[in-house]
Amino acid sequence: MDPEKRPDRFLEFAEKLFLVREDVIFIMAGNGSMWAALKEKICHLKCRDNFRLLGEIYPATIVYQISDLLYIPSDTEGIPMCVLESMSQGTPVLASNVGGLSEIIEHRVDGFLFEKEDVEGVCACANFLLNDSEYLKYIGENSKSKIRKHESI
């Protein structure tokens, strides 16, 4: 985790979503310059018992297979591999509308794009999706189909 990936924004999202859904497990995978500080911050959150810090995971697809959603709160991005991998597994992506993300994700068709500071909107969307399993599945299938279509080109 590095500052431009905005793990602090993910923690804010987790706290807000936890206020309306205590059944959510928040998974953070990876490493980076902020990993130790993140662990410390999480210890002070109300939702701390709902966090799983996994470090580096290979293959990463394992994480996407067990996840309902992927949230990318970054300030800057290119075309991140984690988004492509998540979509290929049928896991819907909620992401900041930055960099190359809008080239991959079609809003409300195969994922969701938000202004990077719109944590409230991301939280509301996540809660809606987690309450509507049919729509969650629909978005997931669309994302999987998009990636498969591009793989075959």
TrEMBL record:
GO MF term set: D-inositol-3-phosphate glycosyltransferase activity
Instruction: Give the first-level EC class, as a single word.
Output: transferase
- InterPro entries the UniProt entry points to: Glyco_trans_1
Question: What keyword terms does UniProt attach to this protein?
Answer: Glycosyltransferase, Transferase
> Which Pfam family would be a valid example here?
Glycos_transf_1
Give the enzyme's EC designation.
2.4.1.250
Which segments constitute the Glycosyl transferase family domain? 2-145
For this entry, the protein name equals Glycosyl transferase family protein
